[in-house]
Amino acid sequence: MKAITYDKYGDNGVLSLTEQPLPKVGPGEALVRVRYAAVNPVDWKVMSGGLDAMMDTVFPVIPGWDVSGVVERVGIDAPEFTAGDEVFSYARKDYVHGGTFAEYVTVPVRALVAKPASLSWGEAAGVPLAGLTAYQTLTRLGTGSGDTVLIHNAAGGVGTFGVQIAKALGARVIATASESNHDRLRELGAEPVSYGDGVADRVKALAPEGVDVVVDYVGGVLDTTRAVLREGGRHASIADPDVIDAGGQWMWARPDAAGLRALADLAEKGQLRVPVAETFPLERVADAFELSQEGHVHGKILIHVSDK
């Protein structure tokens, strides 16, 4: 099969389009023929060696953790799916090796979910990692009706999902972002405030008694979180481990079928939209990484692998 691979850590120059053997399909796994994958910043951070202290790596690596596609066949003890099923998944495994920027990928059925009909193949591929990150941070903090939630970096990939999910959970959402993104966030139901000096005062002007929940999707904002969080409030970060010492939670998305099904249900109800920034063919993953690295993308960057 065709796959994007790298055989050592490095920059975008280590990526190559190569021929790789079909992955073995183990017990409880499905072989998925990839239609679309999606780029997340973690993909190129892993490639740089940034997660080497955290995860074992087996070279050559096929990057990519998000996928939508069609089940080709299933392994032993995988009765949940059959060949031809349309699926999507956050396909991260316990070590770095066989990812989704390839014609085929194996996925444990515990992380595989039926693709929602309301989303295109590309949109479905854009949901798993960013969507689960937002969903898990908000639900683990018990976000619900009547809560006022502050989302740091609300215009980013995770933040855009976070705004929509928090609204669907019944919360009021205050969203930090640059002014150029305020109209877009208002369309999603958030109350935007600008970054920079005085941001805590701007949040307090909207929520004088403090906010109930803060989710940090950017890092470096712990002082602002402390300043606006009401007594007894809950907070989490995906980017700042110091949040633990401040009484919050440091989180990372887990592969989770139940969470993906919840996101699929929101999409089917029209409560979750997936903005797409740009789509690249498989051979141009390096260009997709470069766009992601620029840090100014509004919407998901997709990799189109196949129409089959």
From TrEMBL:
Keyword Oxidoreductase: yes
PROSITE patterns from the UniProt entry: QOR_ZETA_CRYSTAL (PS01162)
Domain of life of the native organism: Bacteria
CDD domains for this protein: MDR_like_2 (cd05289)
Keyword Hydrolase included in the entry's annotation: no
Stored SMART domains: PKS_ER
Domain Enoyl reductase (ER): 10-303
Residues passing through the membrane, by range: none
Record key words, sorted: Oxidoreductase
Name recorded for this polypeptide: NADP-dependent oxidoreductase
Source organism of the structure: Streptomyces kunmingensis
Lineage: Bacteria, Bacillati, Actinomycetota, Actinomycetes, Kitasatosporales
